Each structure stands twice: as C-alpha cells, then as structure tokens.
Amino acid sequence: MTAAPGTAAPKTAATIMTREVVYVAEGDDVQVVAKRLLESGHHSLPVLDQDGRVVGMIGERDLIDAHRQIHLPTVLSLLDSVIPISGWREYEEELRKATAVTALQLATPKPEVAHLGDSVESLADRILKRNLHALPVVDDGGHLLGIVSRSDILRALIQGS
C-alpha cells in the first residue's frame, strides 16, 4: 500500500518493530531466563522452539509467580466428594509455574502475536486491552521477525502527531 503524495505511509508493525530481539529457547533453564530478562532490561521475552517459532512469552510476572507460595484452593467436603468453592484454575496455574524447570514450562503458551501489516493503532489497542508489554512479530509460519514494545508504539504515536 503506497501513501498518497505528500502524506506519510501508515505505520505498521514492520516499520516500528525492533528487529534484533532478545529471546530465550524453550529448553533454557528458568534461572537462565531470569538472568537474560534482567540483563536485557525488557519486561518480557519471546520463547522460541528450535525452528525459531514463537511458542510462548515469558515475563517478570511469570518469574515472580514461580517463586511465590502456592495457595491451596478452598474446598467443601460433602458425602465423600470434594467440591471446589473457588480457585482450582488459579491453583493449577500457580502449581505449573512453581514446578517449572524450563522456559517453555513457565511461559504463557500460545501468546498474542503481531504480523508485519498490523497498524500501530491495532497494536496499541491489543497491548493495552491485554495488559501486555510487547508483541512478537511473526511470519505466517510463526517464525520470529521482530518485536513491538510499548515504547515502540509510543515512539510511533509521538512521531506521527
């Protein structure tokens, strides 16, 4: 798509993304992940399989959750049955994170991703609605091409006004 003469081309993921992405491999130890995350200064990192496809996102919250105490769900015992009152899903998620050994086990699976043609406005909307720090930009096969962070979006919005 070409912009009309005298107007700027619409900004997309392709034009604002960071192409050199700090990432972790799916088999990386959780301690390696924590170190890479802290050293990078990013809030979240994509998790890649051996073919370079994005299989998860891992963030500061995931690492903090992995070190928290697990809270047992509240249950009601009635006639030899255990009836959860609330919290089974939260308990399962806490248990998954607390027992994770690798990046893939700790990461949020099937993360939200962006594609090259996604507009800055749609990227901003998705990041804000889902409270994300970044969106990995992938090709049709799910291979990592870049990443769009909140900072990238803010920079594009400020430069566009």
Description:
The chain is globular. It has one domain (about 15-80, about 90-160): CBS-domain, CATH 3.10.580.10. The strands form three sheets. It has a four-stranded mixed β-sheet. A two-stranded antiparallel ribbon has the order 4-5. A two-stranded antiparallel sheet has the order 7-8. It is α+β, with helices and mostly antiparallel strands and about 160 residues long. The protein has helices at about 15, 30-40, 60-65, 90-100, 105, 120-130, 150-160, and strands at about 25, 45-50, 55-60, 75-80, 80-85, 110, 135-140, 145-150. α3 packs across α4 (about 90-100) and α6 (about 120-130) packs across α7. β7 and β8 (about 145-150) form a beta hairpin. It starts with 12 loop residues before the first helix and ends with a helix.
Which labels suit this protein?
161 residues; CBS-domain; CBS_dom; CBS domain-containing protein; four-stranded mixed β-sheet; CBS domain; single chain; alpha+beta; CBS_dom_sf; Diverse_CBS-Domain
Looking at the structure, the CATH topology is CBS-domain
Name the CATH superfamily classification: CBS-domain
The end-to-end distance, rounded to whole angstroms, is 21 Å
Portion in beta strands: 15-25%
Find the structural class using helix and strand composition: alpha+beta
Strand order, largest beta sheet: 1-2-3-6
Low-confidence stretches: none
Task: Please state the average pLDDT score.
Answer: 84
C-alpha Rg (nearest Å) = 19 Å
Helix content: 25-40%
Number of domains: 1
Count of DSSP-assigned helices: 7
Largest sheet: 4 strands, mixed
Shape: globular
Write the CATH architecture name: Roll
Please count the beta strands (DSSP E, at least 2 residues each): 8
Spell out the helices and strands N to C.
Answer: HEHEEHEEHHEHEEH
CATH class bucket: Alpha Beta
